[in-house]
Design goal:
34% helix, 183 residues, 26% strand, alpha/beta, 8 strands, five-stranded parallel sheet, 6 helices, three-stranded antiparallel sheet
């Protein structure tokens, strides 16, 4: 078992919780942010074909990516329970789990990056908050270097970090820059 996952409905809003901590919801503001995380690298890259999404959550990011023409989306999600819960957000994630150009692999993001031979045009990481237990591994220099290794030479990586205190933001930004100096 990786995590306890629940979806709660309150006042017609659906909320995804991981280990009792808010991860996603279907409010307009939240969906807009996650769709932007999906669309932004797709419109910045000249010809994105192969995309990796690390972390499924409610699926709004990967759903937005899946709408782009001629793109294949590989989602890596640690928890099968998160995959099951994402179905409750089909109304905002474009029913991403049923789209023919989307594949979900249950795996640890770092493990996938260290073992795959595939190369990607775009990588998005819309993952759990860095203060959650074990999540620090997904903000480390080793993780970012693994991502850099599977990114094509003209590829783009978008790493969501949310609103952090300034010291945390700078630490994550410096770590990212060490692996992606052309950021």
């Amino acid at each position: 078992a990786q995590t306890a996952v629940s979806v709660q409905v309150r006042d017609s809003m659906r909320v995804l919780f991981l280990d009792g901590i808010h991860q996603a919801n279907d409010t307009e503001a939240m969906v807009r942010i996650h769709r932007t995380i999906g669309h932004l690298p797709m419109v910045l890259h000249p010809d994105p074909r192969e995309v990796l999404v690390v972390g499924l959550g409610g699926g709004a990011t990967s759903g937005a990516i899946s709408l782009h023409p001629d793109v294949q989306v590989q989602i890596v999600e640690l928890s099968d329970s998160v995959r099951s819960a994402a179905r409750h957000f089909a109304h905002v994630n474009y029913d991403v789990l049923s789209r023919p150009n989307v594949r979900v692999r249950l795996d640890d993001g770092r493990n996938f990056l260290s073992t795959t031979t595939r190369k990607f045009d775009v990588i998005t990481a819309d993952i759990i908050q860095p203060f959650h237990a074990g999540a620090g591994n997904l903000y480390s220099i080793e993780y970012f270097r693994l991502a850099s290794r599977v990114l094509r030479d003209d590829g783009l990586m978008l790493q969501w970090i949310g609103q952090r205190p300034e010291a945390q933001y700078k630490l994550i930004a410096r770590t990212f820059l060490a692996a992606f100096p052309h950021t």
